[in-house]
Amino acid sequence: ELARLAAPVEVLPGRSGLDPWSQLFSDAGPDPAPEEWSRLGEVVRALRPLVGERLPRLVAEGLFVERRARELAVGHIHVHFATESAIVAWIVTQLGGPPYSITAHAKDIYRTTVRPELLDLLVGGSAFTVTVCDANVQHMRGLVSDEAAKRIRRVYNGLMLERFPFIAEGREEEHVLAVGRLVEKKGFDDLMRAVALLRTRRPGLRVTLVGDGDQREALTALRAELGLEGVLTLAGALDQGAVREFLARATLLALPCVIGEDGNRDALPTVLLEALASGLPCVSTPVTGVPEILDEGRAGLIVPEHAPEELAAAIGRLLDERELRSELAQRGRERALACFDARRSASTLADWFRESLATGTEPIAR
C-alpha cells in the first residue's frame, strides 16, 4: 500500500535531534518574536497539567511541524488517533500554523487512561473530528463539552471493494475462520471454548485463527487444555492476500469481540467489513460499532459477549443452515456496498478538508 502512495513523504527527525531549544534558537532563522513567546507560553500552561514529562518533546515536535508546514505552504493537517499526534497538531495550530482535524478510533477514546479534559481540548481545537462509527460518536460526546461535541462527525472506514469479490458458492464445509490480533479485546478465548462445545458433535469441524499478538502463548495453552490441537490451527500473522484467500473459501467468520479490562475495544473491525464484502457470513458480538456493521443482526448473527454457549449455538446454526448463510451473505454484500466503500468515505473526508482550506486561517508568516 505504501508503495502506491504518490505524494512525497517526510518524517520527523529522531528524538535525539528534537528539543525545544534547538527548534526555538535555530542557526538558520531569527529568534522568536515576543508574540511567539506569548503563544508558546499559553501552550505550555495549557498542556503542562495534562501531558506531564512528555511536554518538552511534544513542544519540540510542534515547533518543527509548524515550521515545515509554513515552508511547504500546508493549509490543513490531519492526524490519526486523539493521542500524541493530535497534541502536536493542536500545538501547531496554537503557534499560528494551519488548522487540523483528527480521526479517532478506539483505544484513544475508550481506555481507562483516556483523560476527558485532554480529549476536550483536542477535539474542541480541531476544525472537525472524525470517528469511525455512531457508537464512537455517542461515547465521545459524553466525554467532551457541548461545544467540542459539535465538531464530532462519523465516517465509516471503507474498503477497496473490488479487492473482495463476492463468493457465495463453492465454499468449504465446516470451516470456521477467525482473523485478528491475539489480544484480549478479540475474545478468541471465548471462541476456543465455543469450539470445544461444538467438536464433540461435529467431527469434521476445523477452525483457522489468523493473527499474532500478546496472547499467543496463553491461547496456545488454552488450545491444549481444551484438546483442540487437531481442530484449531493457529496460523500466525499472514499478509492480506492470504487472508483474502481464507475469506473466499471458509464457511463463516467468527469474531467474538469483548470489552477489555482497561476499557479498550474494537470500534469497527476491518475483517468484518472484508467478510461482508466477500459474502462470508459472520458471527460477532454487540461491541461498539459491530451492530452497525452487521445491520443490527440483519447482515450477520450477534451473540452476547463472554458467552461461549451462545456463540457455539450461533456457529452451529450457520454451519447447519445453508439457506441462512446464503441470505446473510447477500445482505452482507449489500451492506458493504452501501456503507463501507473506501472511495465514498475518502470523498467525504476530502470535501471536509476542502472546507477547512477555504475557511481556515493561514499560517502566520515570520
Helical coverage, percent range: 40-55%
What distance separates the N and C termini?
A: 37 Å
Please provide the ordered H/E string of secondary-structure elements.
Answer: HHHEHEHHEHHEEHEHEHEHEHEHHH
Gross morphology is elongated
Number of helices: 16
Entry summary:
With 366 residues, the chain is of the alpha/beta class. 46% of the residues lie in helices and 11% in strands.
Q: Explain this structure to me?
A:
The structure is a single chain. With 366 residues, the chain is an alpha/beta fold. The chain has helices at residues 20-24, 34-51, 55-71, 84-94, 107-110, 116-124, 134-141, 146-149, 188-199, 216-225, 240-249, 270-278, 290-293, 308-320, 322-339, 342-359; strands at residues 77-80, 100-104, 128-131, 152-154, 175-179, 206-210, 232-236, 252-255, 282-284, 301-302. Helix 13 links the parallel strand 9 (282-284) and strand 10. Helix 3 crosses helix 4 and helix 9 packs across helix 14. Residues 361-366 have low confidence and may be disordered.
Secondary structure layout plus pairing:
Elements: H1 20-24, H2 34-51, H3 55-71, E1 77-80, H4 84-94, E2 100-104, H5 107-110, H6 116-124, E3 128-131, H7 134-141, H8 146-149, E4 152-154, E5 175-179, H9 188-199, E6 206-210, H10 216-225, E7 232-236, H11 240-249, E8 252-255, H12 270-278, E9 282-284, H13 290-293, E10 301-302, H14 308-320, H15 322-339, H16 342-359
Parallel strand pairs: 1-2, 2-3, 3-4, 5-6, 5-8, 6-7, 8-9, 9-10
Helix pairs in contact: 3-4, 9-14, 12-15
